[in-house]
């Protein structure tokens, strides 16, 4: 929402908006000229030509009700984004994991190479300190969200799918096949002159490739028959390098300033997308080496006296495993702090979560962070998750209910040689920030 508001501001529109609390993003919008209201009242939509809302806003919200009463056009966030993305050469990044990092990488490379893209991203690009910009070039780079099916609003020039996993099934009648069909529909909405860029190492993507009607570019590390492959991987402490190949022929070396095998995949999708946009491999390789990550994506919060504090948005079992694996390259003792998000996700993925922490030296699980309005599911509790983690992957798992409990515990016990890794889509990042501040 904030990214769309920022782009519309930069395009010259008058923007007002409301949120339940002031935060850094609302303050940045206000500084750019937006009128920000804290709290929701009917009068705040008076005079608007268009009202845009997010999935988080219920139908009985007073501002939505008032807009309907006044016959003001109302659009979902994805419909507003579609208006921007579908008008130009849209680059839409979909997938269970890696959307924010991949779209951030693409936006940064295009920016560095003088293409001047518009970009609308769910996380802040660390290099530029923002998550959105209204560019004057032909390209619009954005995340395409499968969680609520809103990615079906888009008709992009490039459609990227990083991976497909059984998440957000509460929005697909609990049926993974329906989610996979939605991905096929998304890719079949790509423009005639466009391309689907998909990861061939993902079994679920392999299964849907026969149903994709447009041109397809595949990439992978293990799938040797992929059009683009990565070889000579060197996974280091907060860095990685690899050779990018096209149809078996090396294009050159890619050096990244972010860690982990998962970022090799993100970088491959970026390289392919930017090659399709007409940028040379040499330019891409030079620009991507400057990428320092997106906010809350393996973000270093503090480092002192051989103690390292890192925060990550990882909220799915696969992401947790990838993040802990990247952390191991530091050589430090890893204390993984995880805050589950949503009762529904925890319910569907309980067993997978329980097997995701094997590479950590110690695990702390907090209470489930649940959005307002979500109903608790009987038997789904963090204490139960800890029991299963102890059984299935890590005997050093403990349950500490609150952020305050975690902070007090860590302050007493961390010592040189430790990496504290906070993970989750809720507000667990506050523990990492406070700990780094006190260090």
TrEMBL record:
Claim: Hydrolase is one of the keywords in the record: no
SUPFAM superfamilies: MurCD N-terminal domain (SSF51984), MurD-like peptide ligases, catalytic domain (SSF53623), MurD-like peptide ligases, peptide-binding domain (SSF53244)
UniProt EC number: 6.3.2.8
Record: residues binding ATP: 95-101
Catalytic activity: UDP-N-acetyl-alpha-D-muramate + L-alanine + ATP = UDP-N-acetyl-alpha-D-muramoyl-L-alanine + ADP + phosphate + H(+)
Keyword field: ATP-binding, Cell cycle, Cell division, Cell shape, Cell wall biogenesis/degradation, Cytoplasm, Ligase, Nucleotide-binding, Peptidoglycan synthesis
Pathway noted in the entry: Cell wall biogenesis; peptidoglycan biosynthesis
Domain named Mur ligase central: residues: 93-272
Compartments where found: Cytoplasm
Coiled coil: none
Classification via Pfam families: Mur_ligase, Mur_ligase_C, Mur_ligase_M
InterPro entries with a match to the protein in the record: Mur-like_cat_sf, Mur_ligase_C, Mur_ligase_C_dom_sf, Mur_ligase_cen, Mur_ligase_N, MurCDEF_pg_biosynth, UDP-N-AcMur_Ala_ligase_MurC
Entry function: Cell wall formation.
Protein name, entry field: UDP-N-acetylmuramate--L-alanine ligase
Species of provenance: Paenibacillus cookii
Protein's gene: murC
């Amino acid at each position: 929402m904030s990214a769309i508001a920022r782009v519309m501001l930069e395009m010259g529109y008058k923007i007002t908006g409301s949120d339940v609390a002031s935060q850094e993003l609302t303050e940045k919008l206000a500084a750019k000229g937006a009128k920000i209201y804290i709290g929701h009242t009917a009068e705040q939509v008076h005079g608007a030509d268009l009202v845009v809302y997010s999935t988080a806003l219920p139908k009985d919200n007073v501002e939505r009700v008032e807009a309907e009463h006044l016959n003001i056009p109302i659009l979902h966030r994805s419909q507003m984004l579609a208006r921007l993305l579908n008008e130009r050469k849209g680059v839409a990044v979909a997938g269970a994991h890696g959307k924010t990092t991949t779209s951030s990488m693409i936006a940064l490379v295009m920016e560095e190479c003088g293409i001047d893209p518009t970009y609308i991203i769910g996380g802040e690009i660390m290099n530029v300190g923002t998550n959105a910009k209204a560019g004057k070039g032909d390209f619009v780079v954005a995340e395409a969200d499968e969680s609520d099916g809103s990615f079906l609003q888009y008709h992009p020039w490039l459609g990227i799918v990083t991976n497909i996993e059984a998440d957000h099934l509460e929005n697909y009648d609990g049926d993974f096949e329906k989610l996979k069909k939605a991905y096929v529909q998304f890719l079949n909405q790509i423009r005639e002159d466009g391309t689907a860029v998909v990861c061939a190492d993902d079994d679920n993507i392999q299964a849907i490739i026969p149903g994709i009607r447009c041109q397809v570019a595949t990439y992978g590390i293990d799938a040797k028959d992929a059009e683009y492959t990565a070889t000579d991987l060197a996974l280091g402490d907060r860095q990685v390098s690899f050779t990018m190949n096209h149809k078996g022929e090396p294009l050159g070396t890619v050096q990244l300033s972010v860690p982990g095998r998962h970022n090799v995949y993100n970088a491959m999708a970026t390289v392919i997308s930017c090659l399709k946009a007409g940028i040379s491999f040499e330019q891409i390789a030079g620009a991507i080496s400057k990428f320092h990550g997106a906010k809350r994506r393996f973000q270093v919060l503090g480092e002192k006296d051989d103690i390292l504090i890192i925060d990550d948005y990882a909220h799915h079992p696969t992401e947790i495993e990838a993040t802990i694996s990247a952390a191991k390259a530091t050589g430090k003792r890893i204390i993984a702090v995880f805050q589950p998000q949503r009762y529904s996700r925890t319910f569907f993925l309980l067993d997978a979560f329980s097997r995701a922490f094997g590479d950590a030296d110690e695990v702390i699980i907090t209470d489930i962070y649940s959005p307002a309005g979500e109903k608790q599911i009987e038997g789904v509790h963090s204490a139960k998750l800890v029991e299963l983690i102890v059984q299935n992957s890590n005997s050093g798992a403990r349950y500490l209910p609150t952020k305050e409990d975690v902070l007090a515990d860590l302050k007493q016990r961390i010592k040189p040689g430790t990496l504290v890794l906070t993970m989750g889509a809720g507000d667990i990042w506050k523990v990492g920030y406070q700990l780094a501040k006190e260090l």
